[in-house]
Amino acid sequence: MKFFSIVIPAYNEEARIGNTLTLVAKYFHARNTKFEVIVVDDGSIDNTIKELENWRSLHKEIRIISNGTNKGKGFAVKQGVLQAKGDYILITDADLSTPIEEIEHLVYRLKNGYDIVIGSRGLKTSLIIEHENFLREIMGKIFNFIIRCVFSLKIHDTQCGFKCFKRECGVLLFKNLKINRFAFDVEILYLAKLMGYKIKEVGIDWTHSKDTKVRLFKDGSLMLFDVFKIFIYYKR
User: Fold this and answer.
1) I need a surface site. Which of 77, 166, 176, 182 has the fewest CB within 10 A?
2) Within 13 A of 91's CA, how many CA atoms are on the CB side?
3) pLDDT, tens digit, for every residue of 164-222?
């Protein structure tokens, strides 16, 4: 039986992290599957750490990593992946906008020859239960179009926060990660392509969270700058 590591980056998530952890634990317990949840607190200034410690006191599966200061989603995910012990490593967002049950679609592909399977909001098989607003959705599509053109990645949605890796593949990729913030997904997927890993994109169920931490214009601009840095790192 496979051992799963669930890596969750968290920043100011006191209101919903407990529910997310409860749903994740319930899913794996119901299937009698060995798992660990690694929550990486990225310098939260609310009571996220207190909530995590309360939850850990009741559930032995949780591990907490604290960055102390906010260093970015990519940095947080990297810390979690490099400490993961599982055969499969799932990265998911703290809002659980993709239900944990969707992991079954990813694991099926991992068992059938793929090294990385990523959830996608951009395929015909995707089910968007609640959409982002029009501007966010359009900008997301433009961003992914740019990524496909610049890096020749045949992926429709690099930014969905639901990705699963075989352990050896995930650890090696994240050891080499340079981007600390939201564009880290692009670097990981492009690096995986360069290293010859087999990537599969699958449609998933997804619900937009109104409490998203992604600031449309500020973070969007930083992501484009990081894409330029990725281009310089790997294309020169």
Assistant:
1) 176
2) 31
3) 999 999 999 999 999 999 899 999 999 999 999 999 999 999 988 776 666 655 666 78
Alpha-carbon distance 189 to 1, whole Å?
Answer: 27
Residue that is written with structure tokens 């239960």 in the block: 129
pTM higher than 0.85, yes or no? yes
| Placement of tokens 């929550």 in the chain | 39
> Per-residue pLDDT tens for 82-103?
999 999 999 999 999 999 999 9
Handedness of CA 64, 177, 230, 179 (dihedral sign): positive
